[in-house]
Amino acid sequence: MNRTIVRCQSGALYSSIWIPMVSFKAARLGTSRFQRCPVHKRWERARPVDPSTLTADERAAAERIEDIGIP
User: pTM for this one?
Assistant: First the structure.
């Protein structure tokens, strides 16, 4: 399953399964979601990030950190 790089409201980058209009592990809030951030270990608003706006190091770091899978 494809993963999308997202940024939480506190600024952490991580990868998440992000299926438009579908949410099994988060509450949808328009274009963002309220889900558990694996970096801060708390529930936060997260939004997808355009990978072209990130450096190669930021992309690689975000892809190494994954949130929980679909239950």
Answer: 0.84
